[in-house]
Amino acid sequence: MENITSNEGIPDLNEELNTIQIESTSSNDGHEELIRKRGIITKLMKNCELSAKEGDRVYIIPKDWFDKFFSEELKSENDLGPIDVASIIKDYEHFVLEDYNSVPYTSVPEPLFLQFQEWYGITDLSQPVVTYLIENENGELVTEYNKRIFRLHHLTIGESSRNNYTLNQSYIVLSSLNLYSDLKVKAIQQFAKNQNYLNMENHEFRVWIVEDNETNSANTALSSYEITPLQFLSLSSKELIAEDMFHKLLKSTSSQPCDIIIETRNLNDGKWPSYFFMYNNPMTMTGIVGLSNLGNTCYMNSGLQCLVHIPKLRDYFFYGGYEQEINLDNPLGYNGTVATAFGNLIQNLYSYHWNQQQYQSYSPNRFKMTLGQANSMFAGYMQQDSQEFLAFLLDSLHEDLNRIHDKPYIEKPTLETSEELADENAVKQLAKKTWDAHLARNDSVINDLFVGMYKSTLKCPTCKNISITFDPYNDLTLPLPISTVWNKKVKIFPQKSPPCILEVELPKSATYNDLKDYVATYSNIDSSSLFGCEIFNHQFYRNFESPISDSNYLPVQELISETDDIIFYEIIINPGDIILPVINTKIEEGFNRPSLFGVPFFVTVSDEERRNPFLIYQKLEKLYTNLSGGYIQLRETLNNENQLNAIFPNLVAKYGKEDMEPINDVIDTLYDPNDSTDGIFTLKTISESRDEIEIESPSKTQPWIPESNINYKLADDIFNFSSVILRDIYYYNKMENQTSDAENASSTDNSNSEDNMEISTDSPVVDGSDLGNDESNHKPEKYQSDLDKLCIESSSILVCEWTQKSIDEVFTDDKPIDWEHPALLENKELLLAQKQRNSASPNIITLDSCLKLFSKPEVLGINDSWYCPKCKEHRQATKQLELWNTPEILLIHLKRFENQRSFSDKIDAVVDFPIEGLDMTPYVVDSVVEDGCIYDLFAVDNHYGGLGGGHYTSYVKNNIDNRWYYFDDSRVSSTDPKKSVAGSAYLLFYCKREQNPNGIGNSKLQDIIINSRTKYEERWQEILNSQTQLYESTKDIVSRETSLNIGYTPDSKSKSCEIEPNNSPSLTNSHSDTTESETFELKQDKNGSESSEDDILSRKSTGYSTESLEVGNLDINEADENGGRRKLRLLKKVYGSDTNPEDEDEC
């Protein structure tokens, strides 16, 4: 608009500028040149100040750069650099400036900016930022830093369009000096971008302006891009932009920001959405609406469909009765956000049906977002459990709508004496007191509909003390009476017989101790002598006897998986014995490091054996005889008749007869050096530092297992830790064969020791003394016997190092039983039970059997033991749960998932439940039932698959047409309720039959629903009246509007309707084109004319750069003049901290 952006006086200024430049004396001195330019700018500023008027163009530049230009410290203009406009603006299109406190800016008249640009230019990423001088309330000229913001909306009756929440809102930014005609053009341009699928040639448009002070509220109609006719009529202030408004300035709008609503009509039918109710009768939807899957949200959709079809709950939220009960003071609630989101969901599902399609789909994005903010479990898109979702939702709704704002502290009522426990009236009084105490702290619509109470009875097995308590519930979890058997084959390593394997069958809830007792019974081994562990990769993996093992609290089905290798070792411990783990290694050809093989086991070692490695070796040989399943040729030992002189002459010569005398006491344990049989393995040892928690007592008799990352290459020969005499006896043959004379005896001894073992740097070395076969050899000093020396400690690991040759000799294929192929231990009782189970016909599970099982007494597990106040001890008491009463909405949870750690442990058995006429009277222990106990099914939440994945759907009865429907996310179809009786049924929703067909039940809830329904009907009538008034007030404008409508053709979209800035020949920089939102010139329309306005008044002021206030931090609800901050809040989807990059294109 040329008249608005008129720059009268600028040609004179340019002429004067040229005169100044001609008159000035050129100088090569940078400082003098800078002074000259400052003089030019100062004179220009004075001239612009004298001629300033509203509508003059000004440019925004960094204040720091402007101040630096006039700074005394600046000596050369070379230090000034180009103008960095990009540093002060976030968005050129929407005129969003940076925070003034962080990046100050100021405005300069157009002649100044043009001169600055000619001298210094602007940075590569910068564009000129143009705004205008406007008059403020005091009649002063100020820079328009805060332009007019208009939020764009689309008025539509399309159902699919209403549910399309992915389209973000668009914004238009214009100067207050723009005309309403500019606003309409710009709005339609932006609308055309958003609705690019719309054929503009076949449509005409109307634009409404809405000035509403609550546009930022998430609950208003203007919170979405697309609005319905009902939402449109609910707006308190709306005005059609007609011909008589085209020449009005936008500064006349009373509120900031404003909303723009565009409606279209096809040229063929001629019906405007704003007149929708003039030719459509209002009617409520039936609620038969699918819910879109937002990404693994079927668990939410199925549960919501069950809830929103509860008539009383639906009416409570649909008619807005919940709004007066939102509790903003409850620290356990969510400030009403969950209740409001649920209410909006129901109102959307049951609101006016916008077209004639039978079934619709609604996208619950807002509800999902609110739910995720309340609980991070539901924030993402992972699959969740529908029952857990409903439990959280009902609890959140209860806390958001709790009518009790100040909860009193109330102790739980109890019965004090045994006489009261036997008195039926006393028990009833206890139930009443418990319910009253509950209502004193919890009173909501959820409590009115879903909450009942059950009776819990605990009986101590020792003192027979009984405890009775009452507790509320809002869902009834029922176990399924099916066979819950855990089956597993475990190995048993007896101490004196070959290994065997036993098939075990226990309840899934059985403990490790139950398993241990079972194995002990069928193997005829004392359970105290059994030690269980898991074997993996030829070494111990888990120690089930450890005080820190999971076996202390996990049931066997969670403790032991199907593929785990479980072995129970028989360990008979005598006083003074220690228990040592035994690991098997082998040296493979071409490798220095030993590798593991076979099965590890345990051995008990006495004090005598700890002093004599020969005894340990012989004990292990006997154990290997059992583990290998056959005979092992063992080396011969000496007997008491053997004479040391004859057997070990060299040792007697070395140590003397006196020192060798104690060997006679253990001679029967020594190997005969004349026996040519080699040992089947080399016995080594390595120590490990164990955690103190693994050692139960100072006796070191508690079995333990070594770590899995031990380097067994560091294991040392056990004889290197024994008495030196026993060590020399063990190596006697090798030393004697390799000794050529007494002088080489010592080195020969050392050499052979090193050949037979790997010695770590910390291990003792084989003694290198001469064997004394030369008379001239000197005799060693008196060598005292050290036969009492311990060769192993309680933290030692025995390592049996084999060669492949010895393995092949001991573990031969002709032996049917060995440690890898244990013998089968027959379990006749198990075989009989399995046979009977397989031959029996499958039992039909009924809801009746589940309810009976629920009330069946059970003995608490050891981990759930009850503290008896009379015994002052924890006892495995007998517990019984019984229903005291039932709520109006009975939510039954069939417990199909037994193992929360297993994806496959789901019970898919069919539970036969009644569709109508479920009589709960036999299961309710309260003898007085005032309102009956007959229930009818109205919804079923289904689950298909396992716990780790699957799919949820629902069967629901619609009480409006009394038909059943199957909801599978967005898909809805009619169905037969009998199909719901299947193995997928997970949650059952029953509604109690009303004894009074006209009654609503709870009187308080009844009053709320009746009152809210009355107000709802009154509001509807007001809306219809508003429709009539709107039609009558605007119908005469329609004919003129049609003719004045700014139509769209392919050419007009790109030419005739764009608003662009005035072009200036002085803008020579490549970035000199101002942005589209800064425009005020309406390009030629179809007739080639231009819009103009000549009544802009001139005002003189020096304040055009003095209101450079901060932009960007003001709260959007603050009603002050700094609309720039409000603008940033409105554009937060584009520039906020939670910016989604995909949102930027929407604006």
From TrEMBL:
Cross-referenced SMART domains: DUSP
One Gene Ontology molecular-function label: cysteine-type deubiquitinase activity
Classification via InterPro entries: DUSP-like_sf (IPR035927), Papain-like_cys_pep_sf (IPR038765), Pept_C19_DUSP (IPR006615), Peptidase_C19_UCH (IPR001394), Ub_carboxyl-term_hydrolase (IPR050185), USP (IPR028889), USP_CS (IPR018200)
Entry's Gene Ontology BP terms: DNA damage response; negative regulation of mitochondrial fusion; protein deubiquitination; proteolysis
Residue intervals of the DUSP domain: 32-134
Family the UniProt entry places it in: Belongs to the peptidase C19 family.
Name under which the protein is recorded: ubiquitinyl hydrolase 1
